[in-house]
Amino acid sequence: MKSLPEKDPGSPDRRSPARYLLWLLRAQWRSAAVAAALGVTWMLSQALMPAVIGRAVDEGLAAKDERALLAWSAALLGLGAVQAASGVMRHRFAVYNWLAAAYRTVQVVTRQATRLGGTLPKRLGAGEVVSVGITDVAHVGEALDIVARGSGAVVGIVVVAGILLATSLPLGLIVLVGVPLILLLAAPLLRPYREREQDHRELVGELTGRATDLVAGLRVLRGVGGEGLFAGRYREESQRVRAAGVAVARAESRLSGAEVLLPGLLVALVTWTGARFAAAGSISAGQLVAFYGYAVFLIGPLKTLGEAAGKITKGLVAAGRVVRLLGVEPERPAGTARPAAPAELIDIPSGLVVRPGRVTAIAAADPRDAQAIADRLGGYAPGEVDFGGVPLRTVADVRERIVVAVNEDRLFSGPLAETLAPPDALPTDEDVLAEALRAASAEDIVASTGLDAHVAEAGREFSGGQQQRLRLARVLAADPEVLVLVEPTSAVDAHTEARIAARLGPARAGRTTVVATTSPLMLDRADHVAFVQDGLVVAEGTHRDLLEAEPRYAAAVTREEAAPRA
């Protein structure tokens, strides 16, 4: 079998949910075609069994011909072997189609989330994104999985109808008319099922987002006494989800009941009509046995068609959510300019000039001003920024060239080495990671855990200071052309901060580094310090020069120095 996932998932068709599912089918048409062929073989081997049994009854038992009975018994055994072999292979290819469609959807969704960056949380809730990644990809996979059995069901019904028509025109017509009639009667049940499933999926996404927010802010909620209030709101929303789930189950039960009742009525009609023909002598005893076998056989493919309708309906609902996510466009349009490195970076609203190859510190009387400048420098907030003589918004590869690191960043789950190493790192880049760990003063963390240690979700096994140092090591290992750090040492002790301040400049030699901080230890090691007040650069120079010449700067730095550390 082919390994998953594929390196390049391709460009999805996001014009509609149906077109997205068809795109998946085209992308894996070979395995889908093989699965469909195996599904047809598997179903036909079952469809021919009643005919073989009928011939065995007529030519073997009724005629008392032992050789004919053995021959038809051998034929029945052969059909059983074909059914078993094709069933095993059909299942394997169907599961592959399921996994391939799910993984491909995960790939295109992840790629889109990476492309959107800061736009994603503004346009879609965290719960909706999580719901797409957990539940919707499974429903998309199931829509591709049912192709194998669905194809076999359609061909099986057509073949049985042909056999019945050749044997008895009335029986064949009953099947030919009955099957479309069953589908027509079941069709009205699909629309309410799809609508209720859509409403339920939306509510589940909202509830997942509420749960995510609740867990992320649990400590804060307990601190302000708001845990009970949010728990009550979560309880109310969960009851809405439960009610929506019951509505889905009710619609699904009606559809499932129709899958049993309607084919059962058709089977009863075929059997009753066949018995009358046998009593009248129009058909033989073997043909009556075969007709009964066909009637029982038809229950399977008809139920499969009902199952296919349900899975495709769920797949369309899930694909609709995927298409919605894929249709979101980033707030920042793709640029085409490629200024040569090293490039000067100018934040026009504040007047900040960041010269290449230096460590520039931003000390703001209000930390929100420094954060706003950092967001503009990274292109995450509106504002005129010049990068190498061209507007930053027109730069093509700005996400690769400028990296903004904030304390809200998270450590990813997995081996520590993979969590810290850049995405395109090679095994030979261990020295790069080692230097980054030293610059971030995080060698002691790695020494105690090892690089092969497993990192839990968000690195919760580490303290706040350890997480901050590991995040700093990760971004230093990435070695971007321009690195913007926002309060990178706010959670570490003074001794560790002093080491980081001393090592940061040499680690970033030849690169441009911006540090938004009011820590004297960090400011003293910067090549250039810009003091920002009311959103504007009001003074520049070295840390020591500003302490003597700018009382407002001295007051801001002294406050930070005197403040207790976490």
TrEMBL record:
Q: Does the keyword Chloroplast apply?
A: no
The answer to whether keyword Transport applies is no
Superkingdom of origin: Bacteria
Q: Which residues form the ABC transporter domain?
A: 323-559
- How does the protein's chain sit in the membrane according to the entry? Multi-pass membrane protein
Q: Which Pfam family is an annotated match for this chain, by its short name?
A: ABC_tran
Instruction: Supply the source organism for this entry.
Output: Actinomadura fibrosa
Q: Which PANTHER family match?
A: ATP-BINDING CASSETTE SUB-FAMILY B MEMBER 10, MITOCHONDRIAL, ATP-DEPENDENT PERMEASE MDL1, MITOCHONDRIAL
Q: What is this protein called?
A: ABC transporter transmembrane domain-containing protein
- Cell compartments where the protein resides: Cell membrane
Its transmembrane ranges are: 29-49, 69-89, 146-165, 171-190, 285-302
The UniProt keywords, alphabetically, are:
Membrane, Transmembrane, Transmembrane helix
Please state every residue range assigned to the domain named ABC transmembrane type-1. 33-314
